[in-house]
Amino acid sequence: MARHGGMAARVGWCCFLVVALALGAMGQPPPYSPPPTHPNGNGPWDGWDGNDPPPTPDIDWKYDDGHPRTEVMSYANGQPYRANYNKPNRIFTCQDDFGKKCIAQCPDLCPKSCSISCSYCETTCRCVFFPGTSCGDPSFTGGDGVTFYFHGKRDKDFCIVSDSDLHINAHFIGNHNPVNERTFTWIQALGITFGDHRLYVGARKVVEWDDDEDHIEITLDGEPVNIDTANNARWVSKVLPDLSVKRTDNVNSVDVDLAGVFSISASAVPVSDEDSKIHNYGKTMKDSLVHLDLRFKFHSLTDNVDGVLGKTYRADYVNKMNVTAKMPIMGGAPKYLSSGIFSTDCAVSKFHRNAGGSQHVLAMAA
Q1: DSSP 189
Q2: pLDDT by residue (tens digit) across 341-355?
Q3: Which of 29-33, 257-261, 277-281 is predicted with the least confidence, judged by mean pLDDT?
Q4: Buried b / exposed e along 172-209 (16+ C-beta atoms within 10 A)
Q5: Would you say residue 21 has pLDDT above 70?
Q6: Is pLDDT larger for residue 328 or for residue 349?
Q7: What average pLDDT does this structure show over 271-287?
Q8: What is the sign, positive or negative, of the torsion defined by CA atoms of 47, 51, 57, 58?
Q9: How far is CA 134 from the centre of its chain?
Q10: Pairing relationship of beta strands 75-76 and 122-125 according to DSSP bridges
């Protein structure tokens, strides 16, 4: 009986020790191992579960190629992509919405001309063919995914989106090349009308382009919108709290957002000498032809929407362009012509056509 009691005591003690050790182990964080790097350098996050490394203030973790690890995973055009400091591609450094460091790089497809979303640590080529994109001598990618040209006319305004409660005009600039007797056009500014408000987003004209100078101009109801020149700097309207503007680069790139209604990414860019030679634009030293590269996202368009870009979002839209051409051209410019950048008088205008339409957009934003 004594031996039996002693055996029971020893078994009980062992169980207690096992439980104590288990609880002690559970109370300690596992040791951190840096995420593996793919042997050939491709797919740098292969094999990593995606968790951010814990703070390591005393250790400067580096990749095998010697550059510092980003604290959040970066992407380019939707794919994992880590910065390579040996490439000439532009590198951005900023913070995401949680205050974590983001180091992202323009992808090889557009090594210098890309935009960044610090929130998601993602770079995107400015002129990839996403629905709602407008770039260069203006080509548009419609809501149906088809990319086409709309040349408009220089120094004129054309409605590109016209809905019951939202109207967007684009002001076109141009350059005539006497050698090939062609006039090329670009979008220089947007005039956005919603409710009783007028929002202007434009690219300021300059003779000589300076990468470090801000060429974006924004006004709301005639009052200038001033934003600090820093990545992620954000302005919020005191009149319309759901209207905000955020810089996606220190200068020349912004996101304009009216919650529930639209998001517009705008970048002021010049026509480079190289582009002019390739496309025979006939650029001279008198004007850098600064214009806007744009990407639109719409959240509340109706099926009555019209305009150069707007109509391509309708459920009943039938594309009548020659889609077999290298680049289809949308004609019919006169019906999109407006008398001013904030005028809603184009022939296809839908703005204020239905009663109470001007209040609908404000209700959506609220």
Answers
A1: E
A2: 999 999 999 998 443
A3: 29-33
A4: bbbbebeeeeeebbbbbbbbbbbbebbbbbbbeeeeeb
A5: no
A6: 349
A7: 84
A8: negative
A9: 12
A10: parallel
Residues paired with 219 in a beta bridge: 200, 224
User: 187: which residues sit within 8 A by CB, 6+ positions away?
Assistant: 134, 138, 170, 171, 172, 173, 291, 292, 294
Do the beta carbons of residue 159 and residue 348 sit within 8 Å? yes
Q: Which has more confidence, 75 or 20?
A: 75
Tokens for 360, please give them.
């609908």
- Please enumerate in sequence order all residues whose Cβ is within 8 A of that of 21, keeping only pairs 6 or more positions apart, or say none: none
pTM exceeds cut of 0.85: no
Contact 348, 160 (CB under 8 A): no
Q: Burial letters for 228-263: b for 16+ Cβ neighbours within 10 Å, e otherwise?
A: eeebbeebebeebeebbbbbbbbbbbbbbbbeebbb
Are 182 and 276 in contact, with CB atoms under 8 Å apart? Answer: no
User: Each residue of 244-253: pLDDT tens digit?
Assistant: 999 988 899 9
**Residue 170: how many other CB atoms lie within 10 Å:** 29
Identify the sign of the CA torsion 82, 84, 90, 96: positive
DSSP state of 251: S
